[in-house]
Write a structure and sequence with these properties.
Strand order of the largest sheet of chain C: 2-3
Strand content of chain B: 5-15%
Chains: A alpha/beta (443), B alpha+beta (286), C mainly alpha (334)
Distance between the termini of chain B: 118 Å
Order of helices and strands of chain C: EHHHHHEEHHHHHHHHH
Number of helices of chain C: 14
Largest sheet of chain C: 2 strands, antiparallel
Structural class of chain B: alpha+beta
Helix content of chain B: 25-40%
Number of domains of chain C: 2
Largest sheet of chain B: 2 strands, antiparallel
Oligomer: heterotrimer
Strand order of the largest sheet of chain B: 1-5
Radius of gyration of chain B: 28 Å
Structural class of chain C: mainly alpha
């Protein structure tokens, strides 16, 4: 019996078309548009202006608070302008637009491929450097990593959990990273263990990646305190709360963070970025993006610089198919539908999913038949039918009572509903409203 | 016979006992309320819409009775008549507020503003606007999903089939503000109804630069400032590529309406312009 | 390329639909239908066809002429109500009574509350109980199995095991004596007894249950709770006084218990939403059924039990919530 989380969950078709495709570095784009808001928290403040020359890895926007992140230039060239452009949010937001000239990197960055296993940095130094390198959660949530690594006073951490699950269908970036950069991820894990002062690390990997499980298990035997945990193929196995429940059987209480149960979770991509930041002095400015879809002729995993327009990646994967109905940034369960291919890649872009027209539209809306399937699949044990109805009718105090804020927006409920009801649409609306009310109450 | 008599007497006694108990309890737990609150409440329209800013007509009546100065209290549904009637009961002064009406500041009809994507989510403007700027090239424009129409309690709004925009039925609008609050893009504004219901306003809230705005919608305000220059009363300000007419300063001269190159400024309830009379060729030839 | 579609996540769907679930239940009822054909022949066909057609017709007519909105008869729920209603009737019921039953089931039991998804009571049971109270004679004349295969209105009728037990006990006979008068447990399991068209063959109904569980149309909670409670309650009574109270096997295999527990109590709309709530619901049905059967005036209590518990469902849903993630705290920092 494989370990898994306690409540609910669904199993969407996996469709891992790009599995096994080696990571391919994309040619450098002619122009990049780097949004200043690519992470959870306050948008960064630009430290360059129009006309400035920049090198790869140079700081171009600085963190504007504790929960914020630095942003580094992904290319070398000249800053063209700082302007509002359409980004993945669906609105126009500020970005630093740089016209590329050559590929000159910052001198401090170690560009060699050698594995650096010696760790000389102390715990505090690691956390500091992670923050300076602008590392945010690469699983898609983009939470600033140095904040997660800073254990608040009064709480203790006894285990680090790495998220190698990649439970979203279609995406394979993390899978390839584990196969090709396994050693680096292991050293990164050690760095994180030192930063958090823990002796134990568990890497969770879903059972549909047997090669990754074997490879990582072999590597882990060389390192102290790191174990691999194969997990049942169930969505949302990669959700932080569910992953901790599956790996160490601890459930985070409502409204609290993982540190409450002594755990910190980091994505394997983030871990690799930590290795590169500490051991190679390389800040975060590029990432692996899966480009995939049923009609895509060359589904691949590309290493792309932040700020690259989507169309460049799509062209490298064989071009936008004729029957494209929807372009999704991320996976099909939690990704965001995009309106244009000019939108740039950001630190949180885990994948680009092109959906053919025939499956791009929702089914016919019918009245709720009270089948309770949404209740049985909710991984948080909530009642989506109820939360959706009270959000629609604007009964905010009832929504709060029924713990709408516990919802992790995984989409299992809308996925399952036989009546095609837009459950998550209304629940998200309710969460926004109730969150607003709660914040104004605490002022 | 006996049974009937006993029944009548016992029920009668029970009834009398209950009545006496109820009377004394009502007296003991009586809450003293200023009787004027009831009187003022009678004068109010009983719509309980919240347009006055209070939770219901009774609460508004209480506020009127309890405040010394009622000059900033106004019932938009009842209007000046109701306010003066209520003020008369209390012997207080009330200033007549100008009647207001809701105005939809967007003319991005299906013709003017082509759709570039198709929205397939729940039918709610708030949900759509949290997802993206809308299914057209203008991120400020009306989404056409009708949340404002749902919010209106007075049957003063409906969605126009052809244009895809909400329409305000002037005669029913009581300027309670429910539609204004419901619109996530702040497209609807409460403006002065104007003498003879005439008013002029910029029917656009797009803040994109002129070129971008025009590309997305042919009726957009491009921020060219021609209206600001021509206004003899300084009623127009242009900020962030968008013109705005201050309804307190506007004297309804209509010069800006003619000047606007995209017809973004709308005038409502004015008489149609008289047709120009062609002078006969013989007279002009001289 | 056409315009891009934009919608909030998720962007994939399981493919499940209302139609699939309704037709899934209808398929699960096919073994029972086959059994009813075998035991009651033409009568079963006529009753089933009439009920299904009239239910679908009434739903269509009400939606088109009274409500003036799009019809939803293609989703299969009206047909399902018709089939279940038919399975709750004796196979010699006159057509006009069946039509009245369908009208009540769909018109009052379902549409008057707002259509699919809004009815608090199981519509087929509303129809059945209405008929039972309005036409007590016709609703309790049970055709004998097998011999009535070629007969409809003129089918030979006889007592059901339940009525034999009930009347016999009232006359002071013992359970063991009565057990000899009714078919053996084996015959009861396969349905060789008098009863409603669809309720007799426990074996066929159980096949349907397994099908629905495998297809994830229903979960095990309600059927197990109902059958379990009936088994335990009658088991205790039987232990206390074996000659006054019949045993669990008898109660489980006779009357409408199997049909009720598997197909009627599990109706989506009128049953609770949380698993714990479903178990409480099932236990309630079990207790009330046994109380009516053993201590009450009617020989059969399942229909009433389910309808009574249907009334409690909003209360159950309000106070019995599913187990939430993180309720039981096992932390390092607690």
């Amino acid at each position: 019996m494989l370990k898994t989380f306690s409540l609910g969950g669904v199993h969407p078709a996996e469709n891992k078309f790009s599995a096994g495709k080696k990571i391919e570095a994309l040619p450098i784009p002619e122009q990049v548009s780097v949004p200043i808001a690519q992470h959870i928290g306050a948008p960064s403040e630009p430290v360059v202006s129009k006309g400035d020359e920049v090198k790869v890895g140079q700081l171009i926007a600085k963190s504007s608070g504790f929960v914020s992140a630095n942003i580094h230039s992904p290319v070398s060239g000249k800053v063209f302008k700082i302007d509002d452009i359409l980004d993945t949010s669906g609105y126009k937001r500020k970005a630093i637009i740089i016209k590329t000239d050559g590929d000159v990197w910052d001198e401090n960055i170690d560009r060699s491929d050698d594995l650096v296993t010696d760790i000389t940095a102390s715990s505090e130094e690691i956390v500091k450097k992670v923050g300076e390198a602008g590392i945010v959660g690469l699983g898609g949530a983009t939470f600033p990593a140095h904040v997660k690594l800073s254990v608040p006073p009064g709480k203790t951490c006894d285990v680090l959990i790495l998220n190698g699950v990649e439970c979203e269908p279609y995406l394979t970036a993390d899978h390839q990273l584990m196969m090709e950069k396994g050693d680096e991820i292991m050293v990164g894990t050690q760095l994180l263990m030192i930063a958090l002062k823990v002796e134990k690390a568990i890497i969770g990997i879903e059972n549909n990646k047997p090669d990754a499980i074997k490879h990582m298990t072999d590597l882990a035997s060389k390192y102290q305190g790191i174990t691999i945990q194969p997990l049942k193929v169930q969505y949302p196995q990669g959700g932080e709360k569910q992953l901790i429940d599956a790996c160490i059987s601890r459930q985070i209480p409502s409204g609290k963070l993982p540190i409450e149960v002594g755990a910190v979770v980091q994505n394997v991509g983030t871990t690799l970025a930590v290795y590169e930041a500490i051991q190679k002095n390389k800040p975060l400015f590029e990432r692996v993006v899966t480009v995939t879809g049923k009609s895509v002729s060359n589904p691949s995993n590309f290493l792309a610089r932040v700020g690259t327009p989507l169309n460049q990646l799509i062209d490298a994967a064989g071009g936008l198919p004729e029957d494209t109905g929807k372009i999704i940034g991320g996976g099909p369960m939690m990704g965001k539908a995009l309106t244009s291919t000019e939108v740039p890649i950001t630190k949180g872009s885990s994948g680009i999913l092109i959906m053919p027209e025939e499956i791009a539209k929702r089914g016919k809306l019918e009245p709720c038949i009270r089948c309770s399937k949404c209740v049985s699949v909710c991984p948080m044990g909530l009642s989506p039918y109820l939360l959706s109805t009270v959000s629609d009718k604007a009964i905010w105090d009832r929504a709060e009572e029924e713990k709408i804020m516990d919802c992790i927006e995984c989409g299992s409920c809308s996925f399952t509903c036989p009546a095609n009801r837009p459950l998550l649409d209304y629940i998200r609306l309710g969460k926004g409203k109730v969150g607003q009310i709660m914040r104004s109450r605490n002022k | 016979m006996n049974v009937v008599l006993i029944t009548i007497i016992s029920l009668g006694v029970l009834g009398a006992l209950a009545a006496i108990i109820l009377y004394f309890v009502a007296q003991k737990f009586k809450v003293f309320e200023d009787p004027r609150i009831d009187q003022v409440e009678e004068a109010l329209p009983a719509a309980n819409c919240g347009g006055c800013g209070f939770p219901g007509c009774r609460a508004f009546a209480e506020a009127m009775v309890k405040s010394d100065d009622i000059s900033d209290l106004n019932c938009p549904v009842g209007g000046a008549d109701t306010m003066s009637a209520a003020a008369a009961i209390l012997g207080k002064e009330v200033s007549a507020a100008a009647p207001m009406v809701a105005v939809v500041r967007c003319n991005g009809t299906c013709e003017n503003r082509p759709r570039i994507t198709q929205y397939d989510g729940a039918t709610s403007c708030t949900i759509a606007s949290s997802l993206y700027g809308g299914d057209t090239g203008c991120s400020n424009g009306c989404l056409g999903l009708g949340e404002c129409v749902d919010a209106c309690d007075f049957n003063a709004m409906y969605m126009h089939e052809k244009t895809g925009l909400p329409v305000i039925i002037e005669d029913n609008c009581v300027s309670c503000g429910a539609c204004v609050d419901s619109c996530p893009k702040n497209i609807i504004e409460l403006r002065k109804k104007g003498p003879k219901s005439r008013r002029i306003f910029v029917s656009c809230i797009n803040t994109d630069k002129g070129g971008t705005a025009k590309k997305a919608c042919s009726a957009a305000c491009i921020g060219c400032k021609k209206c600001q220059k021509i206004c003899p009363f300084d009623a127009i300000t242009v900020e962030n590529n968008l013109a705005y007419i201050d309804y307190n300063k506007c004297k309804l001269c209509r010069k800006c309406v003619a000047e606007c190159p995209t017809n973004a400024i709308h005038m409502l309830n004015f008489p149609p312009p008289k047709p120009k009379v062609e002078k006969p060729a013989a007279e002009t030839a001289e | 390329m056409n315009m891009l579609t934009v919608s909030p996540s998720p962007h994939v769907h399981s493919g499940d639909s209302v139609k699939k679930n309704m037709y899934g239940v209808i398929i699960a009822l096919l073994p029972a239908f086959a059994a009813s054909l075998y035991y009651f022949g033409i009568g079963a066909v006529i009753v089933s066809l009439t009920a299904v057609l009239s239910c679908v017709f009434f739903e269509w007519a009400i939606q088109k002429f009274l409500l003036k909105k799009e019809t939803s008869i293609m989703d299969g729920s009206a047909a399902l109500t018709g089939l279940l209603l038919a399975f709750n009737m004796p196979s010699n019921l006159p057509i006009w009574i069946i039509i009245i039953g369908s009208l009540v089931a769909i018109g009052i039991g379902k549409m008057s509350f707002g259509g699919l998804g809004n009815n608090p009571f199981n519509p087929a049971l509303v129809g059945r109980v209405f008929l039972l109270i309005s036409f007590p004679v016709q609703m309790t004349l049970w055709p004998k199995p097998i011999v009535s295969q070629m007969h409809y209105l003129d089918a030979e009728t006889g007592a059901t095991p339940l009525s034999v037990m009930k009347e016999g006990l009232a006359n002071g006979e013992t359970v063991s004596a009565l057990m000899d008068k009714i078919p053996s447990i084996n015959e009861l399991f396969f349905g060789a007894m008098g009863g409603s068209a669809g309720e007799v063959a426990a074996a066929a109904l159980l096949v349907g249950l397994i099908f629905m569980l495998l297809k994830k149309i229903i979960t095990w909670h309600i059927p197990v709770a109902v059958l379990g409670t009936i088994a335990v309650f009658t088991g205790i009574l039987n232990l206390v006084s074996p000659e006054l109270y019949a045993g669990p096997l008898f109660h489980l295999l006779t009357g409408g218990v199997m049909l009720g527990a598997i197909f009627m109590a599990t109706d989506y709309v009128s049953s609770p939403m949380a698993n714990k709530g479903m178990i409480i619901f099932g236990i309630g049905i079990g207790i009330i059924t046994v109380v009516i059967r053993v201590f009450g005036a009617y020989p059969e209590g399942v229909s009433f039990a389910i309808l009574i518990m249907n009334g409690f469902v909003p209360l159950i849903d309000k106070y019995v919530k599913p187990k939430r993630f993180g309720e039981v705290v096992k932390t390092a920092n607690a």
